[in-house]
Amino acid sequence: MAHILDIKTAGKPLNEAERALIMIHGRGGSAQDILSLSQYLNVKDYALLAPQATNGSWYPLSFIAPVEQNEPWLSSAVETIGKTVEKALAEGIKPENIYFFGFSQGACLTLEFLARNARKFGGAAAIIGGVIGEKINRENYKGDFAQTPVFLGTSNPDFHVPVERVYATANIFREMNADVTEKVYQNFGHSINEEELELANSLIFV
Predict the structure, then answer these.
(1) Residue 38 above 90 pLDDT?
(2) Molecular function (GO) terms listed (predicted)?
């Protein structure tokens, strides 16, 4: 009932890198899939870390299902991201040099982890995602992002992630002092487009 910690790596060895990028895959995807996206990002000198969800899914139901219905997988998934961050910190990577990239279910998990653990990070790009829960529990979200850059890209409509939740997430992150950019693409579909990768590079991986 919990994820087995399985972190795939690529890029520069963690003990030689100054920056680390944590990449979180979507439902049915894999750590290797999301790592392959790094070739389109300005992260050549980064250590790349991608935890693998047990059975390919971070939690069983929609991210806007009641939270208790996604437990205990959801809590274990958030903990997995925390352990991945700890792995980077243990190798001497500073928090402000830790970056995040998540897609779909991985974007939701990335944003949920960050909102629960706000501090000055390097930056985050979340494509098609929002904070998790049938209703947003604002009391879960604490800390100060200290102007961490955050990019939210999404399609409207999207069958999995309502655009209203993306906007609500952007507002929460702004309240927590993140420097948020959101971009909504009309009828683009549930995927990552070239402009989103370019925006991630110009806003986050600079």
Answers:
(1) yes
(2) hydrolase activity
